[in-house]
Amino acid sequence: MTLADLLGALPPVVPEQPAFPRRLLGAFRRKSITFCTGVTDERTVVYWFQSRSFTIDLRLPDGAATSVTDRQGWVGDTLWDAESQQMSWSVATSYQPRNQWPEPAILRFIGNSVLEFAPSGAYVEDWRQQCFRGPLLGLRLLSLHDEETGRDLPMDGGLIVAGGHVAYAQSRLPRLDAALRNAADLDRALADRLLTAEEIESYEVSVALNGRTIDHSTRTGRIGQQIASGEFALQPDGSILLSRPVGGRTCRLRFAVDIHVPDFTFDRRTQAASPAPDWMEKEKSHLFRHAMIAA
């Protein structure tokens, strides 16, 4: 079955509510990042997709023109510290061989915006919720079965459907990530011939916006293709298999269901204390003359 078929066939699955605030579920585009030095970046392509227990993140400084070694993308377990109200991530593998964003996130909410402050004061990121209403599906990738050799290999990755948007992450084969384990960075790894450029970009993080066709990806050859292409199959134990080629071989990827809500309303508004609503209504001719939803 296709991804659309899977969404129709899979029953609702909500094991437990996320530890973090509900409004963080969905798909977010980074509108800007402002640094303590006073400079702001509004051009880098950055998306954050959030399921109940894991995150998919994609960052491309020059969009599709970003060099192989400058691309960033990862999937990681989402951690929430209720006492400090901070979010952090446990990342086993990523496109880059090192963690380039080590700080946890202090989060504040206003309207459809999530403001992420670095505890050090280094930066603040302005994220905008892209979703209104629709399915919320999170599948966490667990392993790969090579049909030709019969071997099972551990794999990292995931699939998140949030409204009309989809993110897909799939790690490199374990032997490739092992070759990068002690690499200082991807430029050095490429120069030392630890991996080829094709092997480096085999770590896929792809995003499809308002459909199933890939708009942005760490694998530029995948742009314009169907995201999470292949044949899905529900298993008796509740897991999901996806049959697709990996590294030129026929493989089956096994996923665990993290969450599935067929019709989810994503949070896009925040409350304001009295008398703020009265003030906004009274002054709306001035306040909202040029105001619009910024996604």
Explain how this protein is built.
- The strands form two sheets. This protein has an eight-stranded antiparallel barrel.
- The protein has two domains: 3-13 and 132-264, no CATH class; 22-131, Lipocalin (Beta Barrel), CATH 2.40.128.
- The model has no long low-confidence stretch (mean pLDDT 96).
- The chain is mainly beta and 295 residues long.
- It contains six helices and 17 strands.
- The chain has helices at 3-9, 174-179, 186-191, 197-200, 276-282, 284-287, and strands at residues 26-35, 40-41, 45-50, 54-60, 72-81, 86-90, 105-110, 113-117, 123-129, 133-146, 152-162, 165-170, 204-208, 214-217, 231-234, 240-246, 249-265.
Order of helices and strands: HEEEEEEEEEEEEHHHEEEEEHH
Rg is: 20 Å
Mean pLDDT: 96
**Helix fraction by DSSP (H/I, runs of at least 4):** 10-25%
In terms of structural class, how would the helical and strand content be classed? mainly beta
Beginning-to-end CA distance, first to last residue: 32 Å
What is the number of beta strands? 17
Quick one: biggest sheet? Answer: 8 strands, antiparallel, barrel
Beta-strand fraction estimate: 35-45%
Low-confidence stretches: none
Whole-number total of structural domains: 2
Spatial order of strands in the largest sheet: 1-3-4-5-6-7-8-9
Shape: globular
Number of helices: 6
